[in-house]
Amino acid sequence: MRNETPADDEVNRTLIAALIKDARLSVADLARSVDMSAPAVADRLRKLEEAGLIGTYTIDADLKAWGYPLIAIVRIKPLPGQLHMVERILVETPEVIECDKVTGDDCFIARYALRSIDELDPMLDRIAQRAQTSTAIVKASPVRRRMPSLPGA
Fold it and tell me: Residue 153: enclosing H or E segment and its boundaries?
């Protein structure tokens, strides 16, 4: 017999699935969806957060509407001895909206939000002495970031 985790609980999976669809749902709305009291649901959400099953509640802002019509995907291969410095520069660059440390030839894949193509070279210049880069501009995003199907859902 295996130990059950919060992810194994059907009510928790239902709550998480509802929040994935709409993170703005109130605790009262969530409680109604699982036929429980609001305090009981609030307690479950707190436990899901403590267990690391819910990390953040966020919004999906339209970057174009905020003046960032371009997204660049940059593959980054730090030069020998520069990995930690490159990582620090990426973390400190506000235009880097997402970055993954990956296996393979490159160490990082970063997404940069750009107001214009003219901003790209100055941003890449910040790491040019420390890494090789390969850049692609996003034309469209037919699949936006999303959660995979939850087990048992």
Answer: none
Whether residue 106 contacts residue 75, with contact meaning beta carbons closer than 8 Å, is answered with yes
- Whether 9 and 143 have beta carbons less than 8 Å apart is answered as no
Place of tokens 């605790």: 27
Burial of 91 (0-12, 13-18, 19+ CB in 10 A): exposed
Tokens of 28: 């009262």
- Can you give the pTM of this predicted structure? 0.78
Q: d(Cα 45, Cα 55) in Å, to the nearest integer?
A: 11
pLDDT tens for each residue of 42-86: 999 999 999 888 888 777 889 999 999 999 999 999 999 999 999
HEC-encoded secondary structure of 87-103? HHHHHHCCCEEEEEECC
CA distances from 3 to 8, 48, 49, 51, 148 (A): 9, 16, 19, 14, 23
Q: Are 25 and 18 in contact (CB under 8 A)?
A: yes
